[in-house]
Design goal:
It is globular and about 70 Å long. By secondary structure, the chain is mainly α.
Length: about 220
């Protein structure tokens, strides 16, 4: 097997890879923000103590976490257009699917973070006359967010890796950019190897940064 990476140059990277990398990063950012917001709502529903809120949230979270992401991507991409009667596009489908799916995982992280706050903090807020929402907003969530920040960032790295699955519906992500470049130059093996190296380098660097952040937070505690 003769590998030849000489066809790689800046023009190839800028024309094929950067476009896909941009979409992968945007999808990661939007899905993280949307997933955290939706996940926080789900976590609060599960911690509310009210069955009419707890049960639907529990079913949603456990259901989503029991289904492979690629199946959710395909279902949404194929079923939603059939229901509404018009296509929504691979990119929009990927964004909505990732937010809905990742919210289930972020919800469990948020719930664990909220429960990690000592009960004395909750009682202190109640003693000061705070309502449930004020106590959650001003006392509990800020402390919980600090506790779970490393885990949130780790899940975001996993989310970035999972963006390669949008390849199944034809969205132009980073992996798709490498594939197109490889086909155009007749070097698919080299293209997939280069994609694997870039994914590894980015995720390893981000994981190292999360590890350092976790150490700093541990020192502050």
């Amino acid at each position: 097997m003769n590998l030849d990476f000489s066809f790689y140059n800046w023009d190839l990277i800028s024309n094929f890879v950067l476009k896909g990398l941009y979409f992968s990063l945007v999808l990661t950012l939007v899905a993280t923000v949307g997933g955290v917001l939706f996940g926080t709502v789900l976590a609060l529903m599960r911690l509310s103590g009210k069955k009419w809120l707890d049960i639907p949230a529990t079913i949603y979270v456990n259901g989503m976490r029991s289904i492979p992401l690629v199946m959710v991507i395909l279902w949404f991409f194929l079923l939603v257009p059939a229901i509404i009667g018009r296509p929504i596009g691979a990119e929009v489908s990927a964004v909505v699917t990732f937010i809905a799916f990742e919210a289930a995982y972020f919800s469990e992280i948020m719930r664990a973070g909220i429960q990690s706050v000592p009960r004395g903090q909750v009682y202190a807020g109640q003693a000061m006359g705070m309502t449930y929402s004020q106590n959650m907003k001003l006392v509990i969530l800020p402390q919980a967010f600090r506790n779970m920040l490393p885990v949130l960032l780790t899940q975001t790295i996993i989310l970035f890796q999972d963006t390669s699955l949008v390849y199944a519906i034809g969205a132009y992500d980073m992996l798709k950019g490498f594939e197109v470049a490889g086909k155009n130059f007749g070097r698919p093996i080299e293209a997939y190897l280069a994609a694997a190296v870039l994914y590894f380098a980015m995720c390893y660097a981000l994981s190292w940064m999360v590890k350092r952040l976790h150490q700093k937070i541990a020192i502050i505690r």
